[in-house]
Amino acid sequence: MSAWETQTHTLRDTGDLLQEQMPDVTPEKHTDRGSLTLQARMTCWREDNGHTSAFWEFGFNGQLCLLFDLENGHWTMVHPGRRQMKEKWENDRAVTDFFKKVSMRDCRAWLQAFMMRWEKMLKTSAPPTTVPATVQPTAPGSNYITEIVFVVLAVFVIISIVACIHYKKRRRCFQEA
């Protein structure tokens, strides 16, 4: 079974667990004015030393209310109206163990599968194309020096031409006199 199929099964299991919990975790101040949606999000990452870590966020209708930190196994109430939910899940080992299992086992496997696929893609990608060697542009400071040299050379050539013309005219003048 691929990591992606495992994710689908885990997502279905998580949805089933949360549906079972819904009657017991309805917020204390909820009125029947509209539908109530429980949202859950797991975030996991792999540190440089290979350690996998994760946390869960739970909320109702987009409002964050409860966190589960895998590192210390603690539930943290973010919204004061969710005390009943926090106490219920803290005392329910099956719920806590489920979120730990998904965070530790499944998350680690998903990250490993992702990394293997990513590394494989990097290895099989074509090497960068090489271009023929070209003259590298010079540093900006040397460009100014080059321009100054060309300007001075051009001025010198112009002065030389003018001087030569002037000299030839003077020579003609002396020959005529």
UniProtKB/TrEMBL annotation:
Can you name this protein? MHC class I-like antigen recognition-like domain-containing protein
Q: Which keywords fit this entry according to its UniProt record?
A: Glycoprotein, Membrane, Transmembrane, Transmembrane helix
Taxonomy, top ranks, is: Eukaryota, Metazoa, Chordata, Craniata, Vertebrata
InterPro entries per UniProt: MHC_class-I_related, MHC_I-like_Ag-recog, MHC_I-like_Ag-recog_sf, MHC_I/II-like_Ag-recog
Task: Give TM segment ranges.
Answer: 144-165
User: Quick one: where's region Disordered?
Assistant: 1-33
- Output the Gene Ontology cellular-component terms: external side of plasma membrane; extracellular space
Task: Identify the Pfam families for this entry.
Answer: MHC_I (PF00129)
The family database entries (Gene3D superfamilies) matched by this protein are listed as:
MHC class I-like antigen recognition-like
Q: Which GO terms describe its biological process?
A: antigen processing and presentation of endogenous peptide antigen via MHC class I via ER pathway, TAP-independent; antigen processing and presentation of endogenous peptide antigen via MHC class Ib; immune response; positive regulation of T cell mediated cytotoxicity
Q: Which organism is it from?
A: Capra hircus
Domain (MHC class I-like antigen recognition-like) ranges: 3-117
Which superkingdom does the taxonomy of this entry point to? Eukaryota
